[in-house]
Structures are given as C-alpha cells and as structure tokens.
Specification:
By secondary structure, this protein is an all-alpha fold. The protein has 4 helices and no strands. Among the domains are: 40 residues; 31 residues.
Length: 122
C-alpha cells in the first residue's frame, strides 16, 4: 500500500530544500492539465444543432414574394411566366434605341474581335 506520510515528507522536503524544482514541476503539471482539457474540448464532436424552422422547398409555380425594402422597385414585379413579346407600352418604357455613337463603338469592337480571330489568315 502507498504510505501517505512518506509522500508528504518528500513533498515537504522538495518545498523546503528545492523550491524551484517543486514550483517548476507544479507549473508544468498545471499547463499539461490545461492543454489536455483544451485538446479534449477541441476534438470532441460538435453537438447536432436542432432545426427549429422547416426548410422551404422551391417550386417554380409559387408566387414570388417581393421584400418590403426601400431600395426595391415598387412598379417592377418579376414573374416566372414571361411573354414572348413586349407590348407597345413596355417597349416605350424599357427599350432604348442605340444612337450612332454607340453603333460605331459596337462596330469597332466587333471588327477588333474578328481581326483577333482571323489574325494573319490569307
């Protein structure tokens, strides 16, 4: 059996005769225990989070919910069923005819693309 009186005498002897060794040993043991606790906490599996809200599945035929925000356009409503053609009113509202300057820029950029593709081809 372990003699507790002998262990106490050795600890008292260490404290009085070699205090630096005793305190260094105690500090190393404390750091080891702290490191062991941190390691156990870091490697333990995370607990599964309980979902409180039901996930909403997307269906393409549902009505779109537009958020009530100050930066949302009030007169623009997206829809999933698009028309094949614009009406005359939509054409006047949304389509802008290009001017000559824009058409010249487009022509130059297209010519540059063609030149890059064909290069020095005969």
């Amino acid at each position: 059996m372990i003699d507790m009186d002998e262990i106490r005498e050795r600890i008292d002897d260490l404290i009085h005769n070699r205090p630096i060794v005793f305190f260094t040993t105690v500090i190393i043991l404390i750091l080891f225990l702290i490191g062991l606790v941190v390691l156990l906490i870091q490697t333990s599996p995370s607990s599964a989070k309980v979902k409180t809200e039901k996930e909403i599945a997307f269906t393409p035929d549902e009505e779109i919910m537009i958020p009530d925000a100050p930066d949302a356009e009030k007169d623009y409503f997206p829809s999933r069923a698009t028309e094949s053609r614009w009406s005359d009113a939509e054409l006047e509202k949304w389509f802008t005819y290009p001017n000559d300057k824009i058409m010249q820029k487009l022509e130059k950029s297209n010519d540059k693309i063609v030149d890059d593709i064909t290069g020095n081809a005969p």
